[in-house]
Each structure stands twice: as structure tokens, then as C-alpha cells.
Amino acid sequence: MVVRVQSAPFDPAGAIGGFATGCKRVGAIVTFTGIVRDLSGSPLKKMRIEHYPGMTEKAIMAMVDTATQRWSLRDCLVIHRYGDLEPGDTIMMVATATAHRSDAFAAAEYLMDYLKSRAPFWKKEITDQGARWVTAKDDDEAALGRW
Amino acid sequence: MVVRVQSAPFDPAGAIGGFATGCKRVGAIVTFTGIVRDLSGSPLKKMRIEHYPGMTEKAIMAMVDTATQRWSLRDCLVIHRYGDLEPGDTIMMVATATAHRSDAFAAAEYLMDYLKSRAPFWKKEITDQGARWVTAKDDDEAALGRW
Amino acid sequence: MRMIEVLYFAWLRERIGLPSETVETAAETVADLVEELRAREARYALAFSDLASLRVALDQELTTFDAPLKGAKEVAFFPPMTGG
Amino acid sequence: MRMIEVLYFAWLRERIGLPSETVETAAETVADLVEELRAREARYALAFSDLASLRVALDQELTTFDAPLKGAKEVAFFPPMTGG
């Protein structure tokens, strides 16, 4: 179980390859990769991600522990960046390894839902028109209800 | 949208990297990788996968078309092997790329459920005790009901 | 009477002992064709003894046993699929 | 009276104008501490005008505004998170 919170860019394919190589007696691996894209009307120049050092790692590790128990994870990797990112950059990734496919999917979706709304990150979009904080969506909060 | 049915081994991390590089204006990529593991009591020596050449590619492409419409896929990759595989070998992978994360997850799970029960592959487990055809699970058939 | 290519997969192929054969048939539906095959030899009768455990495709499209053969060139019989 | 480290993130940090400060407080609960902060200056009153749009963590654990401060060393205020 590895959690990395970093400003440095990373190569998701390389991280997935390393993760898969380290997994033994596993039948299913699910990965999610989140990428910066243009959400706003005016073209996005930067996505600035602020976080709460210390709490971020603890909060994510607690989610990973819950997922590990609940879906019998054999292994799990979470990488999340902070700092200034550009459109097309990878923001974060999650990888889950299990015996059965449905567990790998459920654990990855659970982690994504919780990372969205319970990990202390805040996104700010910077365009030619100025900067604005991304507001949390009601949908994202509601998504937690299914777990 | 790429569907590959092949006997040759492939590197899932490399395939994921190539897939991600080719995706433009995408916010979410989900991948599933299926790996041969010991399912039976006696140690598995080989997993032999038979398929129906021609129908396999058509059936998978039809699933990909349905998923593309339903979840607005920007891109999709399916690779499935046939022939003799050993424990630890990658059997198959699915990758979906979308604007929103929930679509990428749903499309990948849909494709997995349909590949399990509607793509013409048949698995045979070969152990020291002999060989046996893997039987389809009621759960796998039931999983189609949710779509 | 007309000719149709018949394919068998997985344990059905093993029980019948061949992967495919060209069959001369007067069958109107898949079920009629199965009856003709069953009547041939014991290994066919055994292989097709439980249709609930079999699936069928006409010209590479999944269908049901009551489907008409019409102009199909290829019919395939096999157990439930185990892909993924 | 005791000392507690107070952290602000995202737009709350921008409105208050600093990322953290050490505060001397007699507050029993998070809500009491918010009242003390609001009373300080207009920018605090403005920043904390709508608690429904804010979240709070005590010693890096999410909690609620009615939580007792007890021996907490660090309290953090921030808007709803937007990770992932």
C-alpha cells in the first residue's frame, strides 16, 4: 500500500507497470488516471492545486486502509500531485489489485469518490480572464452515499 | 477505438501508456487488466483459451460501439489473448477514456461484464491432475442485468 | 436440401471430435438442425443432450435455438462463454 | 487561555490573508473559536460568514463545528475539498 503526494510530474504508465510487477497472486488490476482538462469557458492556462501537508497523506492512508479491509485488496497505489499543472498533465492516479474483478473496480471507485470530497486538496483554475476556485459539486458529495 | 485479439503476450503498462498518449481532451482514463491466477485446488500449469476467430472481433467491437454511445467514450482499447497462458500472464485488458470519471468506470465495467459472458472465449485449466473447462458463473450472467 | 458450415467449440468440440464440418440439411430452424445432428450418432446425441447448457450463433451473431436458419452460411454451437 | 495553531486553506486563506497563525484562545469548541475570530476584524467576519460553506479539521482529522477543542494543537478551516 503506497500513497504519494507530490508536486513532481509522474508517468502513470510507468507507475502502473511497477505496481503490476510487484503484485503477486492477483487476478485483477484496475487503474484510474485523472488528467487536467479545460472545464471552464475560457481556455485553461493552469490548474493550481493546494493541499494540507500532513493531513493529506493521513486522510488518503485512512481511505486506503478502509478499502483494503472492505475489498480484500492485495495491493493499492495512490499518487496525487499538488502545485501548478497544465492541461493534459496527469493530476493523480489510483491502482487496486485484487483476486476478483468486482472488488478491484469497487475499491478504485470508492477511493476516487473519497479523494474527491475527503482528501484536503483545493483546485484553482487560472485562465486569461483570471482565477477561480473550483467549487465542490453536490454530485460528488452525494456519491459518498453509495458506500 | 481499437480491438486486438491475439495469441502474443503484451505489456499492459506499455499499452496503457500508448493509449493515454493518443487521448486528447480527456479527463479520466480507467483500465482493467486481467491476470491468470490459481483458481483450482491443484496448482495451475496452464490456462488454455479457445476462441471463435471472426466472431470474437465482431462481438467485442459491437460492445465497444454500445459503450461509446452510452458513455460518450473519447477512446477505447480492448486486448484479449487466446492460446496457452501461464499463471501471472496477462489475459486481457480494457482501457476507457472520457471527460468524466463516472463514465470511464461504468464503460470499463460494462465491457468487462460483456467480455466475460458474451465474447466467444472458453477457458480450460490444465493442472497436474488433468484439464477442465472453466464453467460460466451464474453471477457473471446476472451481472449483465444491471446494464 | 442445402449445405451449411457447422462449428463446435470447447467441450462440445471435444465430445463431437471435430472443430467444424459441412452439413447437408433440410432444417428450417436451429432446433431442427440439432435434431438432425442428434440422429446421426451417439456422440452427437450426447453432446446435444442438454440444450440449456449450450449457446448458438448464426453467421457469428448470438441467437436462440428457435431461430430460422434462413440463408445462414455458418452455425456455431458452444457452451456459455468464459472470457475476460 | 491557551495557544492553538490555526490554518486556513484555499479561498479562506486568501480572504484572511495568511496561511496560518498562532491564536490565544479560551474557546471550548470549534464554534467558540470561530466566534472569537469573527470578533477580531472584518476580514475574519467575512471569511467565516457562512459556516455551511466551510469544513474544519482538528489535528488533521475532519470534524464538526460543535466539536470540543480539548487538547488539540492544530485547527484548520477550509472550503469543501476538490481533490481527485
Give the biggest beta sheet of chain A.
4 strands, mixed
Tally of alpha and pi helices of chain A: 4
State mean pLDDT of chain A (0 to 100 scale). 94
Rg calc of chain C: 12 Å
- Distance separating the two termini of chain A: 21 Å
Compute the CA-based radius of gyration of chain A.
16 Å
Helix content of chain A: 25-40%
Strand content of chain C is 25-35%
| Main sheet properties of chain C | 5 strands, mixed
Structural class by sheet pairing and helices of chain A:
alpha+beta
What is the general shape of chain A?
A: globular
Count of DSSP helices of chain C? 3
Shape of chain C: globular
Helix content of chain C: 25-40%
**Which residue ranges of chain A are poorly predicted, with pLDDT under 50 across at least 5 consecutive positions?**
none
Question: Could you explain the architecture of this structure?
Answer:
- The complex is a heterotetramer, with 2 copies of chain A (147 residues) and 2 copies of chain C (84 residues).
- Chain A is an alpha+beta fold.
- In chain A, strands 1-4-6-2 form a 4-stranded mixed sheet, with helices on both faces. In chain A, strands 5-3-7-8 form a 4-stranded antiparallel sheet, with no helix packed on it.
- Chain A is globular, with a radius of gyration of 16 Å.
- Chain A contains 4 helices and 8 strands.
- In chain A, helix 2 packs antiparallel against helix 3.
- By secondary structure, chain C is α+β, with helices and mostly antiparallel strands.
- Helix content of chain C is 29%, strand content 30%.
- Chain C has a 5-stranded mixed sheet with strand order 2-1-5-3-4.
- Chain C is globular and about 35 Å long.
- Chain A binds chain B through residues 11-14, 16-17, 20, 23, 25-38, 99, 101-102, 104-105, 108-109, 112, 143, and chain B through 11-14, 16-17, 20, 23, 25-38, 99, 101-102, 104-105, 108-109, 112, 143.
